[in-house]
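BUG: 3D viewer hangs when loading the predicted structure for this chain

Environment: internal workstation, default settings.
Expected: structure renders.
Actual: progress bar stalls at 90%.

Input used:
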Amino acid sequence: MTLGDAVVSALDALRLHKLRSALTMLGIIIGVAAVIAMVAVGGGAREQVVAQIRSLGANLLVVTPGNITQGGVRLGAGAASTLTDDDAAAIMKEVPTVQVTAPFLRGSTQVVAGGANWATSVYGIDLGWHEAREWEVEQGRAFEPDEIARGAQVALIGQTVARTLYGGADPVGQELRARNVPFRVVGVMAKKGQSTFGQDQDDVLFVPLPAARQRVIGRNMTNARAIGSLYVKVRDGESLADAETDVKALLRQRHRLQPNQEDDFSIRNLADIAATREASARTLALLLAAVAGVSLAVGGIGIMNIMLVSVTERTREIGLRLALGARQGDILRQFLFEATGLAVIGGAVGVLIGVGVAFGVSNAAGWPLLIEPQSVVLAVVFSGIVGVFFGWYPALRASRLDPIEALRHT
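Structure tokens produced before the viewer hung:
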């Protein structure tokens, strides 16, 4: 019997018992579908996390005010404005691994333009903001150095604010009012999308930092140079962990903190956030992989069971073939091809169902979808390996039947 004859014979045997073959493939189908859906949705989720982290800026440290203690009472993080413009300037000057610093103030305000109004976030920024956040102006221009220095009444707006206040009109050169203070729009920021916390980053108004202090957000009464937070961008190729250590040491020195005192600031490393989310995604992937592995194992056991039943049912047929000159290898290949055919067909059907499930989950949850061709090929190949592994024993048993005893079987 040639290889082609063995394949044709195996397919004929599967067609002869369609329902039984379909039920046997069910475990393989479920396992492969779970693998494909897992890889597609998990890969898309990872890409979304990476994109969100990247949207905040690469190689970025975020320095925020920490807790302070007054009269033995710990007031909690951000209770006092412990960071200043001078801290930002010192970090830029004294930490060689730092590329740029970007101090800022953040608040919220109602903005009005013509007959439209909108509640949005407002940021007071300086010249380092665009470089630190890797956020360019798409339409118009950025702030000029002298506008930052004198706190000019100029503004940059995000895509959401531009769309809400001006519709399809060009906002550049138009006037808007924030806290009843007029600002001239000089530019519209490029689209950023959602942050890692689900916030619309394009729903924002930017004004020069001095203008934010004097006219919109307000000045800190205890420290006129206080800032809300500070972005520190580290040079490419430099260690974020080392830069974080250097920035921490410098700030402790500047704030005159004793060795036994806690930091009055906190530093977040966005790479750590990305690593944490990636670890969570890997844990979920391993869990789904375990479920898929169990399903494939159950499907493989089902194939072995049905093939053993098939050997018993076709004992006389096997004996007749052996008596007519078929070799043990011919019988082995035929039954092995049947088992592998069940697994591979089940794997292919599972791929189709898995892709459908992944699309359904993606549309329902609003997640991105990433279907990698290699994962599809790997799933089908692995299902074939399962068929070979679990089909080997029944095929071997069939090939070792004694022709005389097999012909006597009823």
